[in-house]
Amino acid sequence: MIRIGSRGSKLALWQANWVKSELEKAFPEIEIVIEIIKTTGDRYQEVTPPENMPKGLFTKEIQDALLRNEVDVAVHSLKDLATDTNPELVLAAISERANPYDALISRESKFLQDLPKGSHIGTTSTRRKSQLLNLRPDLKISDLRGNVDTRLRKLDEGQYDAIILAVAGLTRLGLKSRISQELRSDIIIPAVGQGALGIEIRANDRETLKYIEIFNHKETEIACKAERLFLAALGGGCQVPIACFAQVEGAKIKIQGCVASVDGKEIIKKENSGSISEYKELAQSLAQEILAAGASKLL
Fold it and tell me: Is 80 an annotated catalytic residue?
């Protein structure tokens, strides 16, 4: 039996059930069950978490269950997974990336540039907020909490003129038709790992590794590892306006990085490209270039 640990949200369960289904197809002889685990992040869906909350709001309790041998596999949205993980755990696979971009959902299907001056936008992400304000300092941006359905309901009720969510999550939940505009990386650089799933197991669990290896997608792994190296080099987490997006094309990789002030008034964007065999060096040198350009005072 393989026990998959998952959060209980619709999106998390979609992800866990996808992993379960793929395992059942590949290994029909193995019984697979999903164990739902409530995380700290789930408890703060509707309210702002206290200052200085530790990283891993949506992952720690699932990782703890792995360490206690209560589950064998943890399925995470890779963007939620901190770069400084427990050495007793291993990121066994990174799934093929779905659409990595952010989505604008507006009540009148307007594009970002067409939103009236002073429009009210909902997002809790400092990464999205800072890049939006850099482009449109006239916008009013407020926190937006709750699961995807709750966020869309708040938009439909008129609490916001538009909201920002991930394209991948909306697509997985069958809500792609709600997207007004796909915000590609020339508009907003995505979160590190956005669109990919990170599948974690105990480091000494060689048996489970044999099954989980089928999910690893090499190009996505290289791109996301480059992004995570960039993030680690800057010492950032999901509460800091840091963004990084890597694209692998053949034997080449292009990495875009960004650090901004929360108000969007200061933003440093740079990119690096080269051979995929040098992805580690490229990611780390990009981080150093951004720090040298003044990012250290923004972090």
Answer: yes
